[in-house]
Specification:
Shape: globular
Strand order of the largest sheet: 7-6-5-8-9
Structural class: alpha/beta
Bound molecules: phosphoric acid mono(formamide)ester
Helix content: 25-40%
Distance between the termini: 18 Å
Order of helices and strands: HEHEHHEHEHEHEHEEHHEH
Largest sheet: 5 strands, parallel
Strand content: 5-15%
Radius of gyration: 19 Å
Length: about 300
């Protein structure tokens, strides 16, 4: 099987944002544009399995909706840890070997970083990483980048402020990587130290020549941002709940923050949110997070079309 760092045109798995280059992103986004509002039967007879060991609303249902809109069929389990043979002690590898015999593509969400790569190593069909613990969430990053393009025309030259849980936030890890492909991008990582971005991500930004700053104060950067990318502080990933409480109270987007945000800027969030964006922000046209989530369907249609079409 072809693994990481494989160009998308030869893709057999989607494991990491590092697999993508500008040409394949442009191709994918053009396909997504063409598929907006579209339904056909090009994937008739093909089967997608969704194996979710962690909860999901958007990723699982938008993948399933995407497959159905292209005429394919869906099998799967939404609580694989309890409702698959994992509960009897079956390994992820054995489960993937079996599901490879039942489906033409496997969409996997798991609580451990590296699980998707482990699955791809034994699968005989493409594996799509739908989130592997605190690791990566590449298809979320694709829809995030597509949203920045559709909201602002291009991702080139944007100043993006990543906020919230940057330590465990897999969507941040994946999107930061994709944005290195766009000239002129600047990044601010806005978080308290307990959930500040990891040295591994910063090393990749440095290697790519991306200017960045670290701060725990959104007001220090807000007047120059184009995108605020807020994230949920993920209680389920903390071993020390005192750290969680520090992180949870740190950055909140509310009406006061919106007053300081430039008129052309947008607020994004991979969702679900808890209270890190006040609901009073939802009616502001700069609140792009529900439009962002809706883009998940066309991006995943385009991806399934590329993998299976
Ligand atoms: N953004 C995202 O991954 O949402 P779900 O957890 O609902 O799939």
């Amino acid at each position: 099987m072809v693994m990481l760092a494989t160009p998308l045109r030869k893709l057999e798995h989607v494991i990491s944002s590092e697999q993508f280059d500008r040409a394949c992103l442009d191709d994918l986004f053009a396909r997504a544009d063409a598929l907006a509002g579209h339904r056909d039967t090009r994937l008739a007879g093909r089967i997608m399995a969704t194996l979710f060991y962690e909860p999901s609303t958007r990723t699982r249902l938008s993948f399933e909706s995407a497959m159905l809109r292209l005429g394919g069929a869906v099998v799967g389990t939404e609580a694989a840890r309890e409702f698959s043979s994992a509960i009897k002690g079956e390994t992820l590898e054995d489960t993937i070997r079996m599901v490879s015999a039942y489906a033409d593509v496997i969409v996997l969400r798991h609580d451990q970083a590296g699980a998707a790569a482990r699955a791809a190593a034994v699968a005989s069909v493409p594996v799509v990483n739908a989130g592997d613990g605190p690791g990566e969430h590449p298809t979320q990053a694709l829809l995030d980048l597509y949203t920045i393009g559709s909201e602002r025309g291009t991702a080139e030259g944007v100043h993006i402020a990543f906020c919230g849980d940057l330590r465990f936030g897999r969507t941040v890890h994946s999107l930061a990587q994709l944005l290195t492909l766009y000239p002129g991008v600047r990044m601010s990582f806005v978080a308290p130290e307990v959930v500040q971005i990891g040295a591994d991500v910063l090393a990749r930004m440095t290697a790519a020549g991306i200017p960045f700053r670290l701060t725990d104060r959104l007001d220090e950067v807000i007047d120059s941002v184009d995108v605020v990318y807020q994230t949920r502080v993920q209680k389920e990933r903390f071993t020390d709940l005192a750290d969680f409480e520090v992180a949870r109270r740190a950055i909140r987007i509310d009406a006061e923050v919106m007053r300081a945000l430039p008129e052309q800027a947008i607020v994004m969030h991979p969702l679900p949110r808890v209270d890190e964006i006040a609901t009073e922000v939802d009616a502001d046209p700069r609140a792009a997070y529900f439009r962002q989530a809706r883009n998940g369907v066309v991006i995943r249609m385009a991806l399934l079309d590329l993998l299976l079409g």
